Amino acid sequence: MTFINFFRQVFSVAKAKRQLQMFYVAKAKRQRQMFYVAKAKRQLQNVFSARKRSDSGNSAEA
Questions:
Q1: pLDDT > 90? residue 29
Q2: What whole-number distance in Å separates Cα of residue 58 and Cα of residue 44?
Q3: Which helix (H) or strand (E) holds 41?
Q4: Taken in order 12, 17, 20, 21, is the CA torsion positive or negative?
Q5: Residue 55 confidence (pLDDT)
Q6: Which residue from 21, 47, 50, 59 lies 20 to 30 Å from 2 (Cα-Cα)?
Q7: How far are the Cα atoms of 2, 22, 53, 54, 57 from residue 39, in angstroms, in the given order?
Q8: Between 56 and 33, where is the model more confident?
Q9: What is the model's pLDDT at position 19?
């Protein structure tokens, strides 16, 4: 094996490691974003359900 072939192989392995790391970082970012979207959606649903409960309670008294 020549030095150039060895260098290419090492470079190829390093490149593959970087690409895999970038994939995992991107995946983690997507998962975190989806977590926050789901959390915000739950909070909005809680707000709207609380409003419905308070509105239905007011109309029953009137």
A1: yes
A2: 21
A3: helix 3-61
A4: negative
A5: 76
A6: 21
A7: 56, 26, 21, 23, 27
A8: 33
A9: 96
For the record, the structure tokens of 26 come out as 């991107």
- Kindly list the distances between the CA atom of residue 14 and the CA atoms of 3, 8, 20, 27, 40, in Å, as whole numbers in the listed order: 16, 10, 10, 20, 39
Q: In the numeric block, which tokens belong to residue 13?
A: 């392995």
| Alpha carbons within 13 A on the beta-carbon side of 43 | 6
Place of tokens 């072939």: 5
- Is the pLDDT reported for residue 10 higher than 50? yes
The model carries a pTM of 0.57
pLDDT at residue 62 above 50? Answer: no
> Tokens representing 20?
């895999």
